[in-house]
Amino acid sequence: MKFRLTPRWPLLPHHHLRHLRHLSRPRHLLDTTLSRELHATRSSFNTGNSGSGGDSGTFLLVPGATMATILMLGILHARRLYDDKKVEDMKEKGIELEFSPDVKASFLRLLPLRSMSRCWGFLMSVEIPVRLRPFIYKAWARAFHSNLDEAALPLENYVSLQEFFIRTLKEGSRPIDPDPNCLVSPVDGKILRLGELRGSGAMIEQVKGFSYSAASLLGANSLLHDAVDEETCKEHSEQSITEHSSRKSWWRISFASPKLRGPVSVSPKKGLFYCVIYLKPGDYHRVHSPIDWHVLIRRHFSGRLFPLNERATRTIRNLHVENERVVLEGRWEEGFIAMAAIGATNVGSIKLFIEPELKTNRPRKRLLHSEPPDERVYEPEGVGVMVKKGEELAAFNMGSTVVLVFQASVSESPGKDDHSSEFKFCVKSGDKIKVGEVIGKWSCS
């Protein structure tokens, strides 16, 4: 039996076989040929301007740049995961994070976030083939933990991602608390901050270590100023009455009737409260009315579109004041109330159901200077648009933030310097809440 021996040479491409032919040549011819080819190869790398030499250099440089980019992105992603894990560990230990600006926040100011958001909005409005809709929407729901069972329509009926994001829910999915003495949540989200606004500045806490004024959020022409001035005048008038009664002579107090002898009256006053709620991309994206009220004024601020996630809240100054927002102001039975719907990156489009013609995130006329807010007074003036508790008011895409600023009754306890508020919050920072659930009421059990 005869065996065929396989050649010891490895299989090579055809253009390399010509090097094997040199082996049969004399030694001096082989050295001459190899030196010529080596010289030609060096020339091609040095010039890189003509023929296949330039292509070879490009072929070697492109994979190197790609690998460097992938490596850089991997390092940044790993750093972000490390920072997020560090934040979670601090929260578990009960350590509250403070405001700490960084380089990333400054870099965001250089990006054309408004133009990027308009491009994203265009992509979201593109019609998706019917067969692909269930797969795309289910993938989104898995990524952002959305509950598709609450959708009012089958997934095939949502033509685009934009329609899917602002989808309505099945009837009864968000029951509204019927208690007339309670304030309900206008959105699904997470309570970031809440409390009572005290002092002349009326500062809203963005994060521990940094706050912004309610007036800067709502605007210079806000009805908030009239409400504060009215309450200040009321306090001065009550104080003057008390001082005047204290000047009465001793005999008038001694012989007065018991009703006049004890003139201390506990009259309800108006305190100013706020509540900040953050919506994640997977949350229900429609905004409802928190109470029965009259919407008197709409104010649209054409600002930036920074992200509104937890990282941005800790690193960007005046985040809610600088971002584009739509503010609704009006009156309810307790006094002043305002609701600010704040846009974020890829959330430039804020839709108002009571004013469908309003368009947001339009190209700016002036790039360097901020534009004055666009304001509209709803007719009839002084009455405005009446909305009921739980009624739909607005909608926006992706994640965003809603800030409530409102007046509610407080009473000053006799003989004490502090104020015991009649209105009390029934939630705390960090709680998750849904539309229609109670935020606060006049008497919490």
Automatic annotation (TrEMBL):
* Topology Mitochondrial intermembrane: residue spans: 83-445
Q: What modifications follow translation? A: Is synthesized initially as an inactive proenzyme. Formation of the active enzyme involves a self-maturation process in which the active site pyruvoyl group is generated from an internal serine residue via an autocatalytic post-translational modification. Two non-identical subunits are generated from the proenzyme in this reaction, and the pyruvate is formed at the N-terminus of the alpha chain, which is derived from the carboxyl end of the proenzyme.
Q: Biological process GO terms, please?
A: phosphatidylethanolamine biosynthetic process; protein autoprocessing
EC identifiers of the protein: 4.1.1.65
* UniProt keyword Acyltransferase present: no
- Active-site residue list: D188 (charge relay system), H288 (charge relay system), S400 (schiff-base intermediate with substrate), S400 (charge relay system)
- Pfam families, alphabetized: PS_Dcarbxylase
Q: Residue ranges, Mitochondrial matrix compartment?
A: 1-63
- Reactions it catalyzes: a 1,2-diacyl-sn-glycero-3-phospho-L-serine + H(+) = a 1,2-diacyl-sn-glycero-3-phosphoethanolamine + CO2
- How is this protein organized at the quaternary level? Heterodimer of a large membrane-associated beta subunit and a small pyruvoyl-containing alpha subunit.
- Put simply, this protein is called Phosphatidylserine decarboxylase proenzyme 1, mitochondrial
Q: Which organism is it from?
A: Elaeis guineensis var. tenera
Q: Which gene encodes it?
A: LOC105043672
